[in-house]
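Handout, section B. The chain below has 399 residues.
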Amino acid sequence: MPSPQAPTAGDAGIYLDHAATSPVCAEAAEAVLRGMRITGNPSSRHDAGDEAKDVLETSRRQLATLLDCAPGDVVFTGGGSEADALAVVGTVLAPTDRSAHVITTAIEHSAVLESCTMAGDLGAEITVLRPDSSGWIDPDDVRRALRADTVLVSVMHANNETGVLQPVSEIADIAHEAGALMHTDAVQTAGKVTLTGLGADLVSVSAHKFYGPKGVGALKVAPGVRLAPLIRGGSQERGLRAGTENVPGILGMAAAAGAALRHLNDPVFQEHRHALRAQLLKELQAVGGITVNGDGAPCLPETLNVSFAGVRGDTLVDMLAVHGVCVSAGSACHAGSDEPSHVLTAMGIPAERARSAVRFSPGRATSLHDVTAAAALTAELVGRLRTLGAADAPRPTHT
């Protein structure tokens, strides 16, 4: 069989790993450069400091529009993982007159799960809920898990591996009825779907998932929510996150948020998002022996998680990379691990199928030609791997 040809999509090939990170948009890149030319510290009491503070507060207002909150509710962080940690651990450490019980789910990003582990080490009791077979969390399971001492419910807005959207607003209502706070990790949804009406008290976002720079994020903290700071040493960010703010990164994040909102309000672009997923799924189904993980639940159009029977997902990812197609075998945070995805495992998916999963996540610049070319190459490589697997299988013996 001839070697498959690398798709032609520019020097970078075809990038279908936007769930891991997105390229920096032009608006964000220009804003970062503008921020690099600002000399002052936003906390300094002189003209240079005032300039830095002014652009910081302008950026806060821009991000508040994306987060659907007041500018004063926005706390800048060093990324989504820090925002998750501040939400979870900060809630547990906040002064309270009751013990701390936290409810989360088995499909959360490791930033939330590890934060819950830390909260447990600090004395909190953690309840971890499992999803159904499609990766969806039942709000009634949350209701049943609530206790008099529950201080926080943390359920992600959309899963980073399957793209399955969770009923956050309904769960938030249930949490609030019991007197608990609601946190949602919206890292995968910010800039892709509206965050209006989520009802969460705490919302984590990360700039690099919506075409902003890496290493900067934010946490929406609703009025009246009490958090203990994790990083101490100064009064920046309402005393919740000490340290001189990353002005260039924050400007870039705000510019990316503005661009994302324009795309959210563009019906042509919205139609294109759904067309990409439909075309990609149609082309991959022609491969045969595939299963869509998360099928049957509402899902982000940018995320398609597929298991290929008889094929190791990490091997397929490596072979696609050689030919210029960038995808992943799950969360980028666990690349290189031989363990099956904790998300797929929590959904009850057998280890063999979980290890055969590949995540395709197209983005704004992805064309229908890109997904068709990537699917064709995938089909050819899957065929090769299945043939090799059949050839390596032990031959039957006759007695």
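Note. Residues 26-263 form a domain with the Aspartate Aminotransferase; domain 2 fold (CATH 3.40.640.10). Compare this with the example in section A.
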